[in-house]
Amino acid sequence: MILSALLVSVGINFGLCVIYICLFSILRKLPVHADVYAPRIVAETKNDSTLERLLPSSSWVRMAWLPTEDELLMRSGLDGFVFMRIYIFSLKVFTFAAVVGLCILLPINYMGNQIYIDFFDFTNASLESFSISNVNDGSKRLWIHFGAVYAFTAFVCYLLYVEFGYIASKRLAFYSSSKPKPNEFTVLVRGVPKSSTESLSETVEKFFSECYPTLYLSHYMIYNTSKIWKLLDDAEKIYRKLVSLKSTKQSSQRYGRVGCLGLFGPKVDLVEYYEKELEVLEDEAKKQQSLLNGKASYLLSHIHILSSTLPHSYVTRELRAAFVSFKSRIGAAITLNIQQGQNPTEWLTDPAPEDRDIYWAFFSTSFLTRWIGNVVVVLACTALTILFFIPVIIVQGLTNLYTLEILFPFLKGILNINVVSQVITGYLPSLILKTFLKIAPPVMKFLSSIQSYVSHSQIERSACIKVLWFIIWNVFFANALSGSILYRINVFLNPKQIPSILAAAVPGQASFFISYVVTSGWTNTASELLRLTPLIFSYIKRIFATESDEEFEVPSLSYAREIPNILLFGLLGITYFFQSPLILPFLLVYFCMGYLVYRHQLLYVYSPKFETGGQFWPIVHHCTIFSLILMQLIAIGIFGLKQLSLASTLTIPLPIITLLFNGYCQKRFSPLFKGYPVELMTKKDKRDENDPTISEFREKLITAYQDPALKPIKFSSTTDNINAPLLAFET
Amino acid sequence: MILSALLVSVGINFGLCVIYICLFSILRKLPVHADVYAPRIVAETKNDSTLERLLPSSSWVRMAWLPTEDELLMRSGLDGFVFMRIYIFSLKVFTFAAVVGLCILLPINYMGNQIYIDFFDFTNASLESFSISNVNDGSKRLWIHFGAVYAFTAFVCYLLYVEFGYIASKRLAFYSSSKPKPNEFTVLVRGVPKSSTESLSETVEKFFSECYPTLYLSHYMIYNTSKIWKLLDDAEKIYRKLVSLKSTKQSSQRYGRVGCLGLFGPKVDLVEYYEKELEVLEDEAKKQQSLLNGKASYLLSHIHILSSTLPHSYVTRELRAAFVSFKSRIGAAITLNIQQGQNPTEWLTDPAPEDRDIYWAFFSTSFLTRWIGNVVVVLACTALTILFFIPVIIVQGLTNLYTLEILFPFLKGILNINVVSQVITGYLPSLILKTFLKIAPPVMKFLSSIQSYVSHSQIERSACIKVLWFIIWNVFFANALSGSILYRINVFLNPKQIPSILAAAVPGQASFFISYVVTSGWTNTASELLRLTPLIFSYIKRIFATESDEEFEVPSLSYAREIPNILLFGLLGITYFFQSPLILPFLLVYFCMGYLVYRHQLLYVYSPKFETGGQFWPIVHHCTIFSLILMQLIAIGIFGLKQLSLASTLTIPLPIITLLFNGYCQKRFSPLFKGYPVELMTKKDKRDENDPTISEFREKLITAYQDPALKPIKFSSTTDNINAPLLAFET
Questions:
Q1: Domain CSC1/OSCA1-like 7TM region: where (chains A, B) (predicted)?
Q2: Contact A330/B333, CB-based, under 8 Å?
Q3: Predicted TM-score of the model (pTM)
Q4: CB–CB of A579/A506 below 8 Å?
Q5: Do B493 and A493 touch (CB under 8 A)?
């Protein structure tokens, strides 16, 4: 790619960014858009009139910049805080990289004359003249690159260590300062063994009160409530119809036929008809609820009954899972960390998610089905990641004008126009790739959700890892190692060849990735600020919806979508740092913009839906280590290709040292991200003992993990008040 | 190798075995050899006169065969029981293999005509005519081999599953039936953080009594007692001299010079002199002991003193490690399984070994040094394993007569003699290899001992794994992939090529391995029965030693030496099962002999020195899985080479299924081998509560982990009684 094509791409995207940001600056001041640009403030104040005052007229940049880290931590939780630390960490890394790259490596690269360039025609100069490819073979100047690789690795490792420690300390501080939460005292137990003489609930009660006589508090069985959900869904549909019927003024619409497709049967008063039907459904749902709820409270009150006296419909709906609560945090920790039963596939424990975070599905599966499910999902995910090559190959084709001309000869005329060819080679390819890549996060989230995870946060975390590998493979490797899918897999089946193949392929793609940073990175970040899709939806809703009949919901940040993108840019920066330092300023702009934009979004737009306590950081750490090793492998290959085999050999210890460093970090910090130390737990437990509200908290704890389907319903009583939320549970 | 050479080797070794067994049958009946052939009985009865009666005149085979499994379990512990299960498991596997191999595969192989054989000259027939190499390329008969591979894998996996479950259940039963042991209540804590205001002992006391107020019992600090050990060693030497002086009748020897080398200085009464010196040393040792013991009991009695008032010599010898005991098993389990402190490199816990099993070294090292030490040992071990090639290459050279003739042309005459050449090709190579391999277990044990292990059992287990890989690489791969070391490593850097390279190389070595089974397997087992080395030592001792001045010690079985050997034969059997079924009868003989011999040895010769609770079984399981996968890879390669690519492709899922099966087994059984379930622990704890002896046990528990160097000494009081044991501790 020539420099001018890149400049076109930069120009287009810069323009787009400016337009997006200007639009945002104008639109956000209109109170009518408050639900798009400051939904958190809308939700928090619940008062529209104060809004204008709350949206300050000074620049949004100041609003995003001014709040301290502690305020951010308070408003967006530790996960949001960690998310912003990724930007800070990347900014530190790439500031160092840019100083070294632009001041030292870039001039050295440009001084070489391996690639022919016309010094006077700067605009048409190939970007490769700024890359390591331009340094003469065997040149002693490559030792400077060698030194840079070592220095950069040392610097990044130092930062990784400091950052891991900092986030671990924040996690512990966050834990010890937080108030008692139900999930700290509760574990999810799965694989409760079936017994012929007892109900599952009795088995759980007996097991835990025997093993933990002083610590066990209560348990809450999980039931198969799909039948109740079905009833509630039906009821909700009818309720909606009823609401819209009642809100219409024309009485003619109140009468209609209720037979097949609304075409047959006698005409009836629909309001009356639906009200009756709603009542029937509600009664049935309540009957079902009382069956399960009744038994649950029955057993909670420690009255033991024989299994044979239990109704069959109850027994079949009891699942082999329960939430078990303890009187102290240490009790929950013991059940979590030590094997419970004699059969390791029974009495399996998992940390209970926060009550708002539970994913009420897949509780029913047994150990074996869940294990098989996991295997299947891993296989499906691998297949999907590898076979996603079709759109990528199309994109590859589009970056090459000649391929296009051969495929579509009639386009030759158009393609020869300078602007068109520059748009096609500079902008279009990454746009198409970007569009295709949008599908990945939802698909991966779906795959994660059919694994055995029981909380949205775990699904998000697992999907984040899946998307990360997907994106690294399909953006980085697919573009770097262009060619057939088999060829690419073959590279990795030939471990000895990896460095040289990467070294031959990767530097040539620098310009593509610069263009990718600009199109995907810059524009995405700016459009995140503008929130185009929610803005359009908000207009549509305002036009078509008569009343605000749905509860106003503050959106949450999708970590599975955002983190892999940032990490991919980090990977690009780290791998290209010494080969093509020209990518670094573009990356710095991206990270600066991202820092401001996401800080703004986390403070004013997104509200956290769960709290993992910073468990996303280890993903960032591992990905950075992977990027470093990839960079080092490429360095080994490039020094070899450039006929400086001594430097190549001397780089070989570097990946080994990096891996050892990673091993040490694992030992040093990872345990802190899996649980909490006894020291802190006992401290918190002791503090609780002196807390007068703890007995009240324990009472709440007993019902904290009740299935939403089993909570009391009250459709019929709310039909008169149309504006009430639809699925109205008593709180 | 031709059949006759193999027959010579079999003949020689069969002869050796017969001689060994006959010698054993004769020698064992002589009461004078009782300490070699029945040391356990000698130690147990402590009465020589009854020995003749105790050594029955009926065959030793009956003695080994008759005791039930429960008796074996009682006498040799779960480790000995698991050791014998390896033989039983192997016998089951290879009986099936032999039936399939000899009845179905061998005739098919022999019917092929890929290799030319003279049907009438059977003795000179090449062994390869019985192997898969003889089956015609592309023959449909290979589908029978394909079926055999699948059936064998299914059978072995089924057996593995059953056996893993059986041993896990035995482990749990053993645990729940055993009496309270100190190590069940104790954990070893390392990385106690240093404090400026408290001694380490105070820090430990404070931490555990705060975190576990109801469970914590006591702790025992570990001190650097090297100074005391030095004093005790010196005292022991003088004590020995004194004993020998006192036992001599000639009074002239009682006087001598005590200056430099005993040449200068005035003549003194040596007995008097040594007695005085012994007293001085003993006093010094007692002073040192009281310093540490005093402080220890001081702190044990909960009197807190300021660190500044502690003598400096005490503080410097306090190590950052302690044995912490709890009132219940669950307390110890909590400390073991949940992270204690906020820094994961501090308050590290390990299961306490049995008190007889402690390895009193390397307690002092910090987390970082231990981590680095581990890395260094792993690297050293890998290097040793890979670079052991020199003796193996010599052995390789010797199996080839031509190489020998070229190297030593003057030997040509001798080498051409039929018997000599057959001895050299059939017997000598494996004998040399065997001798070299004897070095491996002690070296690996040394490497394991400088890792951070704190018990002999852990060292043995870790050395067992190291020796296993060493032996598989240096016997199996080195012989199968003969050639330079670099070539061999290259094979594994080329994953796609592994099956075809193995397929080309492995079948050709069948005769070498048959000969290896015969020389190494048969003869070693028979010589294990004869116990040649201890027999010779016992003779030497009887000739030179005047009195039985050393305590009679019952030997223990070295698992690190024996288990890898058995597993290697298992690997040979599994990999050669479908290629060269001729190896199977030889292996069956080996396993039958081993079963009888080691049953006898475990019952009458070896006594267990520690009890890991069957933790050696997972090694056997993993090695069998590895063997299966190796066999499947070779099958993939051979079917490919034999131009039956469909069979080759259809075999590819097999290793994947095997790995999945292994993954399931890991989930299903492995947790049981890492600890014990809460269910059992609480049961045992409850049983203890009703036990009247438990308070007595708890008192003992407090001092159970006292360093032997800190136990009271009484040399001087025992000098009059010469026959007393040397390092006489008060019990």
A1: 375-639
A2: no
A3: 0.83
A4: yes
A5: no
